Amino acid sequence: MYPYYRQFPIQIQIPGFPQFGEQVSFPPFAPPGFGQGGIGGGAGQVGPPSGPPPSFIPQETDFGAFAVDPGGIRRCLYRFTFIRLINGRGFWFFPTFVGRNSVAGYRWRRNQFRWEYFGIDLNRIRSFRCS
What we know:
4% of the residues lie in helices and 27% in strands. It is mostly beta strands and 131 residues long. The chain has a domain at 65-130: SH3 type barrels (Roll).
């Protein structure tokens, strides 16, 4: 016979993670101080911006000479940022996370008139400009 044991799962709570079965909105966390009026003037805002980005497209010559590395693009967190890729395409972006090799946030889909969560490697970005 099998030894007797309890037939229910063990629940473990890990700090910073939701309980099993708990509903979580995406992204599930906010940076420290965000939502308390601290960062970027977007008090309480964790998702995409509530409206569209600026209507103009910066010319390539308007871009500053910023290194496309985490330190360079980090100053654009929670700000409208125009990204120009290596292949020449460009789009408005609202960064919410900067990692060692990538950046994530919301990309403006102008044909669909909406923000879409998006991530990209920093080595694919040729230049950027924050507003």
